[in-house]
Amino acid sequence: MTTLAVEKHHWGSRRFLGIPEYRRLLATRLASQWGDGLFQAGLAGAVLFNPERQADPAAIAAGFAVLLLPYSIIGPFTGALLDRWDRKKVIVVANLSRAAFVLLTALAVGAGLSGLPLYVSALVVMGIGRFVGSGLSASLPHVVDSDHLVEANALATTAGAITAVVGAACAIGFRTLLGAGDGGSAWTTSIAVVGMLLSAFIASRFRAGVLGPDEVDEPPNAFKAVARGLLDGAKATWHTPNVTAGLAALLAHRAAFGVSLMVTLLLMRYSLEDVGILKAGIGGLGEVAVAGGAGILLAGVLTDRIVDRFGVRTTICAALLLTASAQVGLGLPMTLPTILAASFVIIFAGQIVKLCVDTAVQHDVGDEVRGRVFALYDTLFNVTQVTAVSITATVVPLDGRSPGLILTAASLYLVGLAAYLLLLARKRQVQHPGLVSENDGSHPIG
Fold it and tell me: Where are the membrane-spanning stretches (predicted)?
């Protein structure tokens, strides 16, 4: 790559923030993810670290299943709406809707409800949040040239993830001020509504149609179009080998992450003790979030440059090998310092894989079906994590100390690496060149 090409490719955050529509899309994402982070941390505190409640592995797994699986069933179908309706309106209405359900969830927490009554409203918040995220990702190519998608996506995704961490930290702070019981947890959870309302307001400032879709490649009948969403998303994904391969790598990461998440939650809740300035309990989860946020930030800064230097294929393979090594080297000791170090490395490498896959979808999948692909992407994400958490819950001890599960998580990364290479090597003729374009993953996107 010539010097001129490198200079053209790397714009830097200041150049992107100079684009009004990109800046507005980024602000929409930041407000939304701040609310997401606060809501999720507030709910986790209410359920897992509430002195008025007790949580075992089965209860944690049930919570994940109830929160994520219902959306995983309907997500691919609602994804068709992102390719049919003005995405600006979808994002605005979705944010307003989940703001209402945030308040309902807070009321359920305050009333001391548990199990299904609590999770019904919470699952709607989480589900619509995924829907908003898909809409924002599908809209990005409308505000940034395709040559700069990697860098633009890295900035948006990284800033959003860090803002979610800030939201989670705010929840911990509010919980300290308002109390750790049902009443304080309810007030903490309800504050997330501010992020949703602000996100809706910012998105409403877009001009109609500016976020797409530019064309509607669907049947006139809305019900038929929605019902066809899963099949369309799957077809578009399958006809793009580098997207299919990248998704396999990402799902392996998500499965391993689900195993590690369950182990970490239980270690923080029942096993670990404070080490100097490092705290266990819900404070420890906050430290894990900060370590992960630092990893996300570093990935956002380095991914575009790593991809330019080594190509997508080498970058993803190296990231998977790094995560497997971190699971073994830093995860097995199961001490508070090594857990924090493992969180940083694993989330850093996992975010690199995610940025590569996000950009592949944005670059190679046609706009008329991109929303359905992102919805399928999110659904597989959810199902994989729920499955991993649920299986882990059946074998993990209450104190979380299970070297076998750490080794299993490391092995999943190696399985993902093998699947990625096998799927990337698949030589398949694209049947619908109007919807997707080929990229073998060995060269930088754009």
Answer: 58-78, 90-113, 152-174, 186-203, 245-268, 280-303, 334-353, 374-398, 404-425
What's the pLDDT score for residue 147?
Answer: 74
- CA dist., res. 396 & res. 127, Å (int): 27
The answer to whether 10 and 302 are in contact (CB under 8 A) is: no
* Positions of the chain with pLDDT lower than 70, given as ranges: 1-12, 48-56, 63-81, 216-227, 229-230, 427-446
Q: Which residues contact 215 (CB under 8 A, 6 or more apart)?
A: 367, 368
Q: How far is CA 379 from CA 33, 168, 174, 372, 388, in A?
A: 18, 23, 31, 10, 14
Backbone angles phi, psi at 365, to 5 degrees: -100, 135
Structure tokens at 260: 């590690």
pLDDT of residue 11: 65
State how far the Cα of 192 lies from the Cα of 106, in Å rounded to an integer.
10
* Residue 166 CB neighbours (<10 A): 18
Supply the pTM of this predicted model.
0.71
Residue 359: predicted pLDDT: 84
> pLDDT value at position 135?
82
Neighbour tally for 385: CB within 10 Å: 22
Question: What integer pLDDT is reported at residue 438 of this predicted model?
Answer: 42
Q: What angle do CA 146, 372, 68 make, to 5 degrees?
A: 120
